[in-house]
Amino acid sequence: MIEEYQNAGMKLAKYKLLEDNSFYANIPEAPGVWANAGTLEECRDELREVLEDWVLLGVARGHEIPVFKGRVN
């Protein structure tokens, strides 16, 4: 179930190529979930890991987790 939730969140990710040729990404619907890496693939991988940690920490602390594309919290 968490993998489906991550996949839905990753579809909402916004990517940007920075002036130093590194990539920045965030998921606006998940405040604080962002990544920066040298390649687009590394940035995606890092963003997915950050999203997973963000969800697990949020659940552990009893935070409301946003719904992505029909996924329930």
Characterise the protein shown here.
- With 73 residues, the protein is of the alpha+beta class.
- The protein has a single domain, classed as Double Stranded RNA Binding Domain (2-Layer Sandwich), CATH 3.30.160.250.
- It is built from 2 helices and 3 strands; from the N terminus they run H-E-E-E-H.
- It has a 3-stranded antiparallel β-sheet, with helices on one face.
- A hairpin with a 7-residue loop joins strand 2 and strand 3.
Notable traits:
73 residues; alpha+beta; Double Stranded RNA Binding Domain; 16% strand
Helical segment count: 2
For the record, the count of structural domains works out to 1
Q: Write down the overall mean pLDDT.
A: 91
Q: What is the molecular shape?
A: elongated
> How far is the first residue's CA from the last residue's CA?
10 Å
CATH class: Alpha Beta
Strand content: 15-25%
Low-confidence stretches are none
CATH architecture: 2-Layer Sandwich
Protein structure class:
alpha+beta
As for the CATH topology, it is Double Stranded RNA Binding Domain
Order of helices and strands: HEEEH
Q: What gyration radius follows from the Cα positions, in whole Å? A: 12 Å
Number of strands: 3
Order of adjacent strands in the largest pleated sheet: 1-2-3
Helix content: 40-55%
Major beta-sheet overview: 3 strands, antiparallel
